[in-house]
Amino acid sequence: MWTANRYRVLYVAGFGAVLFLLGVYLGWSGFDTIINMRIRKSVVLEEGSEALNRFQKTPFPLEFKIYFFNISNPDEIMAGGKPAVSEIGPYVY
């Protein structure tokens, strides 16, 4: 036989489960939205913004150098000889 106390326990457990599922749903859908909004807000290049200051005064150079090395004697290397290497580059981006 069910007493009033058991019904109260079931009611509280059901209410807690609904709140938990609602929290999981809102956290799952809302967390991504909040993060994306914060990222969009922080990368806008407006006058006086921190993103613009970081963009204008970078602590490192904004160039990328690539060097290639050409092996001129692959047959001699396969026979155990010393490689003859010539540097090609830099290609700067």
Describe, in plain words, how this protein is organized in 3D.
The protein contains 3 helices and 2 strands, in the order ααβαβ. The chain has 93 residues and is an alpha+beta fold. Strands 1-2 form a two-stranded antiparallel sheet.
Summing up helix and strand content along with how strands pair, one would put the structural category as alpha+beta
Question: End-to-end distance, in Å?
Answer: 80 Å
C-alpha Rg, in Å?
Answer: 32 Å
What number of domains? 2
Task: Work out the helix count.
Answer: 3
Strand/helix succession: HHEHE
Average pLDDT, to the nearest integer? 88
Oligomer state of the chains in this structure: single chain
**Percentage of residues in DSSP E strands:** 15-25%
Quick summary:
The chain crosses the membrane at residues 12-31. The chain has 93 residues and is of the alpha+beta class. The chain is 55% helix and 16% strand.
Provide key terms for this protein.
elongated; single chain; 2 domains; 2 strands; 55% helix; alpha+beta; 93 residues; 16% strand; two-stranded antiparallel ribbon
